[in-house]
């Protein structure tokens, strides 16, 4: 009879271990997937593009103002003006690359047979 009890206890202990593992998985919080979660907020493409364009434009204006201040002698922060100029240049280049990719994607979609 003790062999039967031991034979039954081993699967029961394994079952208890599996149940404990399952309960620990239930405690894990998984971030919602924005693609499959129905309560996500819609992203407005126009507003994203407009905000990006405004940000790039503002960086260019700030860089220009800093360069003008250095040129007129109002500021001696040449390094800050050059860094701002490089940031504005990099932002503009990135924006142009995104525009080129969007135009290429648009052309590819337009060339698809219906």
Question: What are the key terms here?
Answer:
mainly alpha, 114 residues
The global form is: elongated
**Spans with pLDDT under 50 lasting ≥5 residues?**
none
Mean pLDDT: 81
| Gyration radius, in Å | 30 Å
Beta-strand portion reads: under 5%
Contiguous helical run count: 3
What structural class is derived from the secondary structure elements? mainly alpha
Proportion in helices: over 70%
Q: Using DSSP, what is the number of strands?
A: 0
Structural overview:
With 114 residues, the chain is an all-alpha fold. 76% of the residues lie in helices and 0% in strands. It contains 3 helices and no strands. The chain has helices spanning 2-26, 45-72, 78-111. α2 (45-72) runs antiparallel to α3 (78-111). The chain is elongated and about 90 Å long. The protein starts with a helix and ends with a helix.
């Amino acid at each position: 009879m003790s062999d039967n009890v031991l034979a039954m206890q081993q699967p029961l202990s394994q079952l208890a271990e599996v149940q404990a593992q399952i309960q620990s998985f239930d405690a894990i919080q998984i971030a919602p997937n924005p693609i499959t979660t129905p309560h996500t907020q819609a992203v407005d493409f126009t507003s994203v593009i407009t905000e990006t364009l405004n940000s790039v434009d503002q960086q260019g204006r700030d860089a220009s103002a800093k360069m003008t201040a250095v040129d007129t002698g109002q500021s001696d922060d040449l390094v800050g003006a050059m860094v701002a100029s490089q940031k504005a240049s990099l932002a503009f280049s990135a924006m142009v690359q995104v525009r080129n990719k969007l135009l290429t994607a648009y052309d590819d979609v337009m060339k698809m047979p219906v």
